[in-house]
Amino acid sequence: AFFSPQVLLLACAEDLECVPGFQQKVFYIEKPFEFKEDQLVLNLKFDDCRGNNKLNFEVSNPDFTVELDGNLVALKNVSEAGRALFVHARSEHAEDMAEIFILEANEKRGALKEILKLEGNLGIPRQKRAILATPILIPENQRPPFPRLVGKVIRSEGTEGVKFRLSGKGVDQDPKGIFRINEMSGDVSVTRTLDREAIANYELEVEVVDLNGKTIDGPVRLDISVIDQNDNRPMFKEGPYIGHVMEGSATGTTVMRMAAFDADDASTDNALLRYNILRQTPTKPSPNMFYIDPEKGDIVTVVSPALLDREVLRSIPKIQQVILCWHLANYDERSTEGSGAFLFLSGNSNDFLCVFCQFQATVKEGVTGVIVNLTVGDRDDPATGAWRAVYSIINGNPGQSFEIHTNPQTNEGMLSVVKPLDYEISAFHTLLIKVENEDPLIPDIAYGPSSTATVQITVEDVNEGPVFHPNPMAVTKQENIPVGSVVLTLNATDPDTLQHQTIRYSVYKDPAGWLEINPTNGTVGTTAVLDRESPFVHNNIYTALFLAIDSGNPPATGTGTLHITLEDVNDNVPSLYPTLAKVCDDAKDLRVVVLGASDKDLHPNTDPFKFELSKQSGPEKLWRINRLNNTHAQVILLQNLKKANYNIPISVTDSGKPPLTNTTELRLQVCTCKKSKMDCSATDALHISLTLILLSLLSLFCKSF
């Protein structure tokens, strides 16, 4: 009663076999403000299923590269990388192409991602393009040397025995010779300085030809865009501008609007303009009669309505304002002046001195803000330059810890602390402050001692929290070190050196509950085994927070951060997948299933894995296992089997020192297959293991004798 051998075949074998190429071919990333030099963009996984010998990557943008481990990084800081990157990978046995699309933050991509996800699940192949020519971005006004490499065209089928050819406006059409391509490598270069205002975009064509000039691939469109630079001066369209304002108009009355034009790219800050009043002639009755909206260019009145008196001020026929317009992105020599003439307005003579005296202030250490308002007396006409005060600190401020500004409503001087003061360094400060008017004094009047004041500032001591040194703290330890091991000793000091306080330590945040700290000396120890594979560990680093508390009243607290980098040890057995396979009882292909192994540990405690079948008993061996690569093996039948369930014990061993082994049973269902339909219902009731089959065979063999 021997069963006849059958050929085994997995229904899902195609999904489990190694498919050469990129594991993921399309990526979508959000455009950052800038790609940082050597910073990881994403990781590309390429496998030719035969060891990746002589693997080489090419990127369509020369400012990026792919390292041997598949990490895509920028070679320098890149602010403009275009809309897409193409990566071509080639080894001795396979080649493939990956596409990285760069999306703005507000772009909708959910629907497209779902479509691509569905295509991947159905196994729909993506169309392969022979020539990849991504758009190239070039800043205008680049300086020599030229030619300068700006991009790269890639041919997925290699460049041996072929040449690249570039054509179009800027190559072989006027203006000729601006761009050229390396016939062998596909590198695209620019040969001279570009001007966006002359030509903003170039539409070229690239093709691949054989050595006789016959076209093999293409042509493919290559777009080159010129990035705008701030190289155009804003211009006023008209001038001078004439405005009129009624006497007695309220403060804030709009008089007129100035408008300037800029030839730079309107979608960038290079064409975003701002306005300011540069000077006024005459400067009486006030040097600041008007205000201009820096964005809109609207000019409005800012003086009191009482100063807009036509009958009193008829001696001044007009007031001329010189307006300055500049780029928001670059306030430099590329600015433009425009003139506007406004009807009359009168002035006031500055013939009275402003007078003030001594002041005192108290401030707590570590606090910033206004600490005292300095009052000043001036009998000139309020709301004029002859009355408005200008304060300045002329002594006692070597560390620039103080600033003073004029309150426009009250004319008071607002003295502020802008850098926190330290009681332990200095408990007292004395400032000498001078006050003047916006308008110069009339002849025969000069500023005297009454136009200066002394400010005595007392700093109050505040209980400051202890400070950790350094912060954050970093240490490296192996995972699985014995419980009770010392990690390190924290060091915190109290800034209040004059108070002679003690410091106690405590744990603030310990997500995994692995640590403890000596409250007196700050020694950190372990209360549990450190596990690098724990979900509380990120990028091999475990982070905990500690507190240092002084003995003040009330006590003050400082927080310190500890980063523990955990080194991997071989403490995880490898796992095997899949554990279930189904085959047809009449299958002819004896290759049953491709098995994979994974390990939570890091290299070298993972692959290459060793796959073995447990010892097979009986007169015949039913299957064997063949290693495919470092992580996969294939189970092959040596003879056909009857319809039943079989449990195949398979052991997998990692490369750690010492190595760890895990034995897993692969459940194999032999099913009836008719008209492409698989029926495994009967096998579920059989539950025949390899051991039971061998026992049955042995029993039948004995009875025959």
How do the strands and helices of this protein lay out in sequence?
Elements: H1 13-16, E1 21-22, E2 26-30, E3 40-43, E4 46-47, E5 56-59, E6 64-66, E7 71-74, E8 84-90, E9 95-103, H2 110-122, E10 131-132, E11 136-139, E12 148-152, E13 154-155, E14 162-168, E15 179-181, E16 187-190, E17 201-210, E18 215-227, E19 235-236, E20 241-243, E21 254-257, E22 260-261, E23 273-281, E24 290-292, E25 298-301, E26 318-327, E27 336-343, E28 359-364, E29 369-374, E30 389-395, E31 402-406, E32 413-417, E33 428-437, E34 452-460, E35 467-468, E36 473-478, E37 486-489, E38 492-493, E39 503-509, E40 515-517, E41 523-526, E42 541-550, E43 557-567, E44 575-577, E45 580-584, E46 591-598, E47 610-613, E48 623-627, E49 632-637, E50 645-653, E51 661-674, E52 677-679, H3 681-686, H4 690-703
Parallel strand pairs: 2-9, 11-18, 20-27, 28-34, 36-43, 45-51
Antiparallel strand pairs: 1-4, 3-7, 5-8, 6-7, 8-9, 10-13, 12-16, 14-17, 15-16, 17-18, 19-22, 21-25, 23-26, 24-25, 26-27, 29-32, 30-33, 31-32, 33-34, 35-38, 37-41, 39-42, 40-41, 42-43, 44-46, 46-49, 47-50, 48-49, 50-51, 51-52
